[in-house]
Each structure stands twice: as C-alpha cells, then as structure tokens.
Amino acid sequence: MNTSNNVLNMDEIRGQFPILHQQIEGHPLVYLDNAATTQKPQAVIQAITDFYTQCNANVHRGAHHLSDEATRRYEKARDTVANFIHAHDRKEVIWTSGTTEGINIIANGMAQRLQSGDEVLVTEMEHHANLVTWQQACLRSGATLKIAPIHDNGTLDTEAFAALLSQKTKMVALPHVSNALGTVNPVKELTALSKEQGALVLIDGAQSIAHGNVNVSDIGCDFYVFSGHKLFGPTGIGVLWGKEKVLQDWPVWQTGGEMIAEVTYESSTWGELPNRLEAGTPNIAGAIALAAAIDWFTSLDLNAVQAHEQALMASALKQAQAFEGLTIIGNAANKMGVLSFILQGCHPADIGFLLDRQGIAIRTGDHCAQPLMRRLNLPGTARASFSVYNTLEEVDALFIALKKVQNMLA
Ligand code: PLP
User: Fold this and answer.
1) 169-175 and 223-227 beta bridge pairing
2) 213 phi-psi bin (left φ>0, alpha ψ -120 to 50, beta other)
3) CA 179–ligand 1 middle distance (angstroms)
4) Which listed residue, of 95, 137, 343, 371, carries a Cα 20 to 30 Å from 66's Cα?
C-alpha cells in the first residue's frame, strides 16, 4: 500500500480498525463518510470492554474499589482531553453527549442573559446544530440572529463578518471547519475581531478535532465543542470546553445529582466546575474510551497525519477537477477533510446508492445545512470525507467507481 509520506505506516494504522477489513457487495469497504462519524481503533473498543469487565461502577460516590478505579479512569480521561486541546485547567472540560449538547448548554445559558437589542452572529455555513440552537435562543430571548455571508467559493466573507460585529454582538458562534464545504475558517482572527466588540465566542469543532492540533488557548475563544464519535471515540460522549472564568457562573443546564453543593427542601446551591454542568450519572465508559481514542490519535505524528490528509485532499481535488461533469462545491484554498460535489445529470442520492453498490461509503443530501444548500441553490451534494486511515488508492477507487456511476446514470 502506498503511503503519502515516510512517517505513517498505513498498514499498521489500518490494521487497528477491525471494521475496515470487510467486503461490501463483494468489494473491499472504502469508508469515506468520516465527517459523519469516524471508525474506532481496537484500543477504543478494548477500553470499553475493559471498563465493563474490570471496574464498572458509578463514579465519585462509591466507597469501594471498583468505584475508586472507575473514578480514577474517568477523571484521568478529563486530563487527557485537557492536554489534547491545550486547556488551561482540567475544570474547563465538561463532558457532554456531543457537539449538539455542548452548543445547547451555552445557548440555553445565553438565552437567559440575552435581551431585545442584543445580537448573536453565526455564519451561512452552519450545521443545524449551530444554527437552529442559536435561532431558538434568539427567539426565546428577543435577541436578533445575524448571519455572516459566504462567498460563492464557500469561504466566509470576513469583511461582511467584521461589519456585522458591534457592541450589540453578545455571542459569535461559528464552525472551525464546515461539514458541508470543508472550508477552514480563520477562527483565531475571527475570535480576535469578535473580542474587540466584547462578544463571547463559541467554536464548533465537530469537523476540526480529528485532523490535527487544536489549541483552544491559542484560538482565544470562550467555548470549543466537539463530539467523541468524530474523533475515533464512541457515540454519546463529547466535550464542552469553556474558559474557567466564563463557565464558573454559567447558568446550570440540568439539575440533579452530582452538580449541587447543598440541598434543602426549599432550595439548592450549585457545585464547582466541572460538576455544576454535569448533572446525573455521566457516560463513564464513553469518557474513558474517548481518552483511549485521543491516546491512540496522539501516538501518531500529528504533522504526518496532516501531511497525509493534505495528500488525500490534493489527489481528490485533482481528480475531481479533471472529472467531466463534476462540480466541486466549496473551493476554499484552505480545505480540510471534505470533498463535496455534484455530478451533472445525477442526483446525489443516486450517486450514494450506486457507490455503495461498489463498496464505497459516502454521504449525500443537505448535510444538516439546509439554509446553506438554499444559499448555494442546490438540493444537496455528494460528500466524500477523509480520515487518517484512508489511502490514496481509496481516493482513486472513488473516482473509478464514480465514472461507472456516471455511465450508469447517463
Ligand atoms: N457541527 C458540525 C460542523 C457537524 O459536522 C456536526 C455533525 O455532523 C455537528 C455540529 C453535530 O454533531 P453531533 O451530531 O455529534 O452532536
């Protein structure tokens, strides 16, 4: 198998993903739906098994060995996340069920603080998770939702973004990487612009977290959210990172066990971070397995990972540009992980179906970004998305199969 550089051992990497070694419809599986969810290395599967076979117990409250061990692994997982994203303090890492819940925790708290005359700024390229949630928070609070436009090539119109910022802007929420276009936004610069106006900034890291170094301290944002399942971890676990000084008195999200300080029949007071935002029994196995995913990922040379993924993207773009009848949707110079396209005369759903018949898994449709599709005047796109375990041969296989699809549908 070819490697795109000298550092990653692709056979070894792929050998750690049991799911990749199967035939679909008589063809070797080519999994190119990584923006939807990534596959899991054996280390992650093993971490879940180990938890349930060695130390399953509830955390923080047991007076016995199993609970102590579960708590140790669970809290160590928090350290792993904090180090991975360069948080200042482990207290800033809040476990959630995923990106969506992280955004909801912040939007719910914000809705209690926003009022008529305030503004929330998002972009035209939002996933529904970061659009509908802020739209509803604005509707509840009387604040106004502003939408920063994109250029036709799928990049953010940063001048228009800056022009929409003012002292009225209380919250800016935008994706680090667009799931539908692959555009990488200059989040550090956009955060700095937003901070000049005193706005809080949330970065939706769902599509950036599995592609290299994310440094929340360097970005300077207030909140960064992501899902474990897009980072080689399990579903049902995610992270809300927030600056301690912002999160420490953030309106509580859910109430119940674990998040309180003192309770009487009449009233309650809330605990400290991170517990105050983590009511109830958490997804213990999920947190531990997410840490195993991060350990696995960071055992790779992340510069080599980025170089490999850039090589995959370069090959995909080159073949897409040469493919007659294919239009790439999203032509930002800085793209990560995602190739969205349409094929003249072929409905995206048919493309997905006929690629699947050849063992190739992609995503088709609106990618949870209906307003963006409307803005682009498209019913949807076909989207191939790449991860570290994909190979240049798989990119070639996509275009060979796509040619057959085109011939079949022509
Ligand atoms: N934001 C972006 C950019 C996404 O791509 C996704 C999922 O595809 C989400 C948010 C929502 O993630 P989840 O469904 O894991 O909460």
Assistant:
1) unpaired
2) beta
3) 8
4) 95
Summarised one tens digit per residue, pLDDT across range 188-199 is: 999 999 999 999
1 occurs within a structural domain: no
Q: Is residue 245 part of a domain?
A: yes
Render pLDDT for 242-263 as a digit per residue (tens, 0 to 9): 999 999 999 999 999 999 999 9
CA-atom Rg of the chain in angstroms: 22
Ligand 1 pocket test, candidate residues 123, 134, 368, 383, most atoms within 8 A of CB: 368
DSSP per-residue string spanning 199-213: -EEEEE-TTTTTSS-
Is position 397 within any domain?
Answer: yes
Centre of ligand 1 to C-alpha 267, Å, is 36
Of 298, 327, 351, which marks where a domain is finished?
298
Rounded CA-CA distance 269/287 in Å is 26
Q: How far is the centre of ligand 1, averaged over its atoms, from the C-alpha of 221 (Å)? A: 19
pTM: 0.97
| 129: helix, strand or coil | helix
For residue 276, the 8-state DSSP code is G
Phi first, then psi: give them for residue 285, nearest 5 degrees: -60, -35
Number of domains in the chain: 2
Nearest one of 211, 217, 219, 215 to 194, comparing CA atoms: 219
Residue 138 sits in a domain whose CATH number is 3.40.640.10
The answer on 209 and 91 residing in a single domain is yes
Which residue among 253, 282, 298 closes a domain?
Answer: 298
Domain with 152 in it: 46-298
